[in-house]
Structure formats: C-alpha cells, structure tokens
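Lab meeting prep.
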Amino acid sequence: PYYVRVNQNLYLEASLRSSDPSLQLFLDTCVASPTRHNFTARSHTIVKNGCAKDPTYAEYSSPRRHTVRFRFNAFQFIRSNPEVYLQCELVVCKAFDYSSRCHQGCVERSRREASS
C-alpha cells in the first residue's frame, strides 16, 4: 500500500523491464475502484483510450521511451473504505512505428446512433 492524503498529488511511473531502445510504452486506460476485484461498478476513470478523463491528471515526459510518468489528485470514494485500487492498461509498441497505438495518442471513440 501507498498512503496519501485526499487531494494530495499522487505520482506514478511505469517502466518496461527491458533496455531495448526500440520499444515504447503508452498508458491507454487507468481506472480506480474502491475494491480490488471490481473495476466496472463504482469506478472512476482517470484515463480512457489515451484520453485524460480526470481533470487533475497530468502526464510527464520521461528521458526513456519505455517509461510512462503521470499524476492525479488522490481521492476517496464516498461511503466506502478509504482504500482506492488502480488498474492500468499499458501498450508496448515499436518506438518508430508511427501507425502504432502508441503514436495515435488520445482516441475518442464515437458513439453509435441507435436506429429507430
């Protein structure tokens, strides 16, 4: 566990355990939950499809392509235990593949219209 106060900046870093300079890491989705087993009900989305959904989210540059750094303000779910669990999905790409998911960045998915 990592202990922080509510509204305190929480800094995170994820890295590949590889020294291969041709690999790149990308944060695609990051969701918070009051329980460790359910990240769909009563969850809070911080990043979805590479797009910031939490207004306190900020991404930081890294000297290495295979490291992702970001922060957001710590919070607590109302009427819940004080614990907050994170589940993040990261994508590994070839660093110079400009058609890869890593180079697409934020991808807003359009909603389909319901037909009558």
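Slide two material, second protein:
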Amino acid sequence: AAMLPALRRCRPGPVPLPALAAALGPGPVPGLCPGWSPQAVPARGRKTRHDPPSKSKASRVKLPPPVDPEELVVVLERYRQYRLVLNALRAEFRAEVLQKKREERLAAEDSVEEQEEHRRLMAWNAEENARQQARREERARKEEEEQKKRKLEIAEKQARKMEAFLEEKEKEVLQLQEEAKNFITPENLEARIEECLDNPRNYNFAIDKDGRIVKRTVLS
C-alpha cells in the first residue's frame, strides 16, 4: 500500500533514490537503471528474461512440430491462391478508388459547363413540353369538334328519318281515311247491296301476256 504513492510520483529519468528506497524497503534499488519506469516492474511471481531456466527444464530441447509434406503442399497452394485473390481484390479496390477520384476531378472541372448544359436542356425541355401540350390541346379540341359534328349529323339524320316516317304514316292515314269512305258499314249495308245488284260485274274472263282481255263469258 505504501508503494503505490511512490510509483505514481515516478517519471522516466533520474529517480530520487532515498525516497524510493524508503518506500520500497530492503531489496534491489530500481534507481540503478536509468530508464526504469513503473511499467518495467516485473509482475509478482514471474521471472525476467535474464533469469536462468529452472533445473527441471534445463536439459529440454524445443523441437518444431512435425509437418506432413502433402498437407504442407496443400496449405502452400491454398495460401498462394489466397494471396492471388487478395491481391486481385486490392487491385480492384484500388482501381475503383482511382476511378472515383478521377470522376470527381473531372466532375469538378466540368461542373460549370455541365450546369450550363443542364440549364439549357431544361429550358429546351420546358419549351418542348409546352409545345407538345399545345398540340395535345389543339388535337383534343379538334376531336371534340369532330365528335360534336358527328353527333349533330347523326341527330339530323335521325330527325330526317323520323320526319319521312311521319310523312309516310300521315299519307297512309289520309289514304285510309279516303278508303274508309267506301267501307261497308251497318248504316250503308242495304244501299251497297242494292248498288251491287243494280251494277253486276263479270270477273270470268281470260287475259293475255300483256294483260288484255281476250275472252269473257256472258253473265246468265
């Protein structure tokens, strides 16, 4: 607990030996190492790299693990393919980044011209839209006029047909009224009988191809 305040006050460089020795107690003094810092203090229970190996491990010889030659060939081939794919991806990404930078530079250079061209094209587009709209309205107006004209012609034709039909029916009515004068009614039945008896007609005759009477029998 008494060592923590002393460690917080430590800085790289010269270390006040009396104060540090009093704080750490008996033992090796860290101030003997000029570059000593709190991070270089070894953890408790671990050896430093300069300590000799333990007696149980002094005669041990470290050997690399055995490698299967066939497996090594497969691993090397896969690693080669991996490097090829990785290099290809890096080249693709690098080319894409360069292309984007080039496009941005060209866009920045041509932005003024493109904006002017865009404004000109938008103005032309607006004029063309207005012209097409006028053409559509004119075409719609003509179609409407033609449709009204066709409807009027159809109505006039129907009116003429109806008028002709009424005239024909009127003529039929007049003809029937004229023929009705010769109809036999209960009132004139006796007179018509007397008229037929006084004026007998002979329908027993023969005609030729021209409709002339060639032979007639005499009434008895």
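Talking points for slide two:
Helices lie at 3-8, 17-24, 69-179, 189-198.
The chain is about 60% helix and 5% strand.
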